[in-house]
Amino acid sequence: MGSAVRVLAEATPATRDRYVDLLRVGSLAVVVLGHWMMAAVTPDGVGNLLAVVPALQPLTWLLQVMPVFFFVGGFSHALSYRSLLSKRPQGSADSDSAASADSVYAAFLRARLQRLLRPTTVFVLVWGVVALLVQLLRGGAGLTGVTLRLVTQPLWFIGIYLAMVAFTPPLLRLHERYGWGAFAGLAGAAAAVDVLRFAAGVPYVEFLNFAFVWLAVHQLGFLRADGRLGTGRAAGTGSASGTGSASVSGAGSAPGAGLRALRPLRVPALLAGGGLVGAVALVAAGPYPLSMVGMPGEKVSNMAPPTLALLAHGLWLVGAVELLRDPAARLLARPRAWRTVVAANGVAMTAFLWHLTAMLGVYGALLALDVPLPEPATAAWWAQTPLRLAAAAVLTAALVAAFRTFEHPAPPSATTPAPGSGPLAAVGATLCLLGVLGLSMVGLGGLLEGRTALLIAVPVSAPAAVAMTLGGWLLVERAGRGAAR
């Protein structure tokens, strides 16, 4: 693997924005570490450290970094879709152009879903077999039962990301026409939903913010791709390392050069400052909780469904990471640092999928060995924490070594999607989205009893969710492959 990583790192084009890769892997690493730290496990189940020690909840304003991942997703999706569009044959008639764009959509969905669903499907199938065996052997009590319910919960992130992939083409067109106005429309819709929810008491309207809040953050990635956040150049127009802008403020530069060098930081600074002030004001004066992650038993969560406060939090995080772009770019120009990022990105999704398995496996081993589990947040618990984290990291690395091959990109298709394949691909993506979200909600416990969970007011079982995911993926594959060239 080391030689392959070195080859990939050395082959990196000069125009690649390496900071985006760092943000992608860094945000997932923070999520993994946060999950490991927040788990307050006892022999009877799993609690939340933030509920045990509420004074730690302000840390979620730094550690809730999913908005950064979705922001980076918007940037990457814009570049990927535009690249496919640029390679399509240009038809002479409007109908030819529409059919060509339709086939590009199918190819785009197929390529993106493969990278997400190959490791996810393996994860679900392995755990499905384990869950079935456990229940056939009359297991499933205590921590084992909790594990069967918990291991699929992070799949909500995959489901939301699938929605972003599916909505990329229409939202990218809105961005190209309205720019910041498209983002403002989504943010305004998120605000309107919260007004209807909290002021007017309209039932179920809050679930619309799963779309409006996360798609607004995703839209910021489009703005970054076009250089509208003020840092660096627009994607694809030259080096994105940021080193060029840093050089203008050196000794002997023209008067005012230092101020010109600071101008690109105005938009990120406004996003960071405005988002932070907005989030503080909303939490202080509104119905929003302090924690930016879900808490057990709370009446209102900033995460599920997302709120306007979480969107403001996302704005401040996006602005903050953009302010760090130039120093990070200088770091990533070093070969060893860049090789580390390349290696981590190659297994990031696999590590994310299996990290809870590793964490719960460590606790299970401690219980099996009769090692006492201290009460969460006690001095003994904190003293044991570094050992638990190290053990979880080692076990995660072992699981990554076993399953990383499924994250490798599939070879390019030798076929061209047929005209009219877009709707079929969209139906498949919708089924995948619903299946993955359903599985994240129902878990893998109670398979033999037919356990269900409500997904948009419809009861869904784990087998049905898996069937929807696999059926949807097959439709996307069929639409995206098309006919041989």
TrEMBL record:
The chain crosses the membrane at residues 21-41, 61-81, 116-134, 154-172, 179-198, 204-223, 269-288, 308-325, 346-369, 381-403, 424-448, 454-476. The keyword Mitochondrion does not apply. Keywords: Acyltransferase, Membrane, Transferase, Transmembrane, Transmembrane helix. One of its GO terms (molecular function) is acyltransferase activity. The keyword Endoplasmic reticulum does not apply. Pfam families: Acyl_transf_3 (PF01757). Residues 18-400 form the Acyltransferase domain. This is Acyltransferase. It comes from Streptomyces rhizosphaericola. The lineage of its organism: Bacteria, Bacillati, Actinomycetota, Actinomycetes, Kitasatosporales.
